[in-house]
Every structure is written in structure tokens, then in C-alpha cells.
User: Fold this.
Amino acid sequence: MSTIERALEKQRQLEEAKQRKIPGGSQEAPSLKAQQELPAKNQAHSFAEPKAAEDNGSWSGPERQPSRQCTIDLKRLERMGMVNPSENFSQIKEEYRYIKRPLLNNAFGPQRADNANLIMVTSSFPGEGKTFNAINLAISMALEHDRQVLLVDADVIKPQLGERLGLDASLPGLMDYLKGEVSVEDIFLNTNIPNLRVVTAGGRYHHSNEMVASAKMATFMEELSTRYSDRVVVFDSSPLQGASETKIIAQMTGQAVLVVEELRTTQKQVEQSLNLLGPNTKVGLILNKAKIGRKDYYGYYHASTN
Assistant:
């Protein structure tokens, strides 16, 4: 058994031990049919970031198991009108079932594009609902029987993902890793939502543009896309217009979801944002904060939010 396989097996055993200690049906360990039916061999292949000579230096830092665990308040998510990973029906859950399917088909279907498992969620301007949609999309995808999902706060200008999920603001994140202050396993957070891990944005740095454009970031993205090619990585990115970091991330991801706020985002603004994306990027649009019921949009997904 290789070092990587041993690390993954230890991670699986630790997670199973934690589950046995938590009473069944509690908020910290929701009982989900999708999780129960997932084969044990697939559960072991979570985002356990390996460290060893086998990695050829791709991941920096000492070899050890990721141990950070965060608890997301699921009832709070539901009160906020977001997707709750329970077996109860909800309109918002149904919405994201429609939204995620073409994205997953692009990432894992027969016509898969390069880096299509790396999905950037963005908007033209702040306040259009990109973080709301990124979180809901990631949770909805985590409900798939055979997918592991990593949700990354790549909005290094004004990060909101950690606050929305109720996470400790002092936790290290992406920027701390790129700056070299922590190792990669320090930024991966296990959650009480099966199949979902989170990376926060971390500290605020003046030279965030240069760090996002660095070779270390490019290697990080390549590792996520190729080493874990059966996983989905959802990036909550800064708005396209006015944040140069987002254009850099757009060049590294295979898909982009552009959130369009009804009655606010103009057609011209949408066209300008689309022009900032790479020519080979597969793009989907989410009509957000809609006041009408679901329609059959051509080229549009639809999410009705508060």
C-alpha cells in the first residue's frame, strides 16, 4: 500500500470513528441516504491532501492527516432559504437539481472539456447573489451518490463564504497557503455535510492579485483538476468587472456560472462579463432573485432567492 493509500485509509477510519461517536440523526451527522449508499472504497477517496516524496513537491508542508473539522448549522441554512442536505423536499433544492445537472454532464460526460470539474461561480458586480448560489450548488452536488465536492472561497477581495456558513473567521485559508504561512492540509476543512469540504479565503493581503497569478496557484489548480478528476471543485469568485483576480481564475477553470440578477443586471453588462471569460470556457447563467416561476429558459438556469 502506497503512502497516499495509507493516508486515505487513515482518513476514512478517522471519519468513521467520528460518525460512531455522534448520535444518529443529530445535526452534526445528518443521516442521508446518499451517504449510506456510497461504497466504502469511494468514501476513502475524499480530499485528503497527500504529502510525501511521491508528490514531487507539488504540495508543500509536512506529512500529516488533515484534522480540522467544522460544523455547519443546517437549520440556519434552511432559515436563510438555502439548500439543506436533508431528505425533505424543498423548492430551492429542486431548483439546484436542474442547475447542477448540465454542469456535472460537462464535467464527467462523454464530451468532457479540460478542467471542467473546476467550476467558477461569479457575477458582473457585487450583490447579485454569487456566494448564495455557490454554496447551494456545492451542497446540491454533494448530495450526489458518487461525487466529492470542494467549495473554495476565491473571492479574495471581499470573502463572504465563511460568514455565510458560520465558520471561524480566524481559520487559515487559500491566501495563507499561497503566501506560504500554512501547508495545504491546514486549509481543507471537513464538514458535517457528507462529501463536502470547504476552503476559506484566509487572510487579506495587498498583493492578492500576484498570489492568485503565481505558479503556486497554478499548481494548486492543476492538482485539484487532475489528481482528483472525479471530484467537483466550486469556486466562489470575485465579480468579473472590477476584480482582476477573477479573470486569472477564469483562465484556470473549465466552467463558469454567471449569476444575473433579475431587473438589475443589464444585457450589456452580461455581454461585457462574458467577454472577460476564456473562449473555451463552458458558461451557464443563473437568473437570480427572480419574481416569476420556473420557465424553460434557453441558455438560462433559474434560481429564486431572497
User: Anything to note?
Assistant: The beta strands are 69-70, 118-123, 148-154, 189-191, 196-199, 231-237, 255-261, 282-288, 300-303.
